[in-house]
Amino acid sequence: MNTEAFSKTRFGRVFIKVLAKAMESRFRYRFYHPNKILNGVQNLNGLTALEIGCGTGFFTIPIAKLIGDKGSLTSIDILQESVDLVSKKVEDAKLKNVNILKRDVINTEFPPDSFDIIILFGVVPAPMLPLTQVLSEIYRVLKPHGVLSIWPSIPGLRKSIQKSKIFLINNKKHSVLNFSKN
Asked: CATH class for domain 33-181?
């Protein structure tokens, strides 16, 4: 069952509400503050960025502020509920450099070479997301020499991505893995 279908089941709706509460908890902000984690990403000022899996928007507003008015952030999620929630947060924050869209990470429908950086935070590992297909789509929409930043850096993820031979590891900073398009 895919994520979107799961979210429409009774159990799925309850699960997503519980997960959303956990994602916005004081505990998470205290131990995994978005600004602290974003210190592991390159300077975002003026870049064109894609955030995959915006969820509750935990990282969206901080990313948009780091990008500034000269750059832009596109945030996507497969769930309409997430898109609606984050759109409201962006509107309340009066940010003009953010576009929130309902899209599937495996087929984003963006033109090739669209983004300077792609931020994949808190999305992998997801059992319903085949990593090879996700990496192929990220590679397609990332500009030449673009950066893919992933958090958390779970055991085995770095090797799995390097095995694909389409990304090279740049560094690991503040538990964020940063790769460049090969």
From this structure: alpha beta
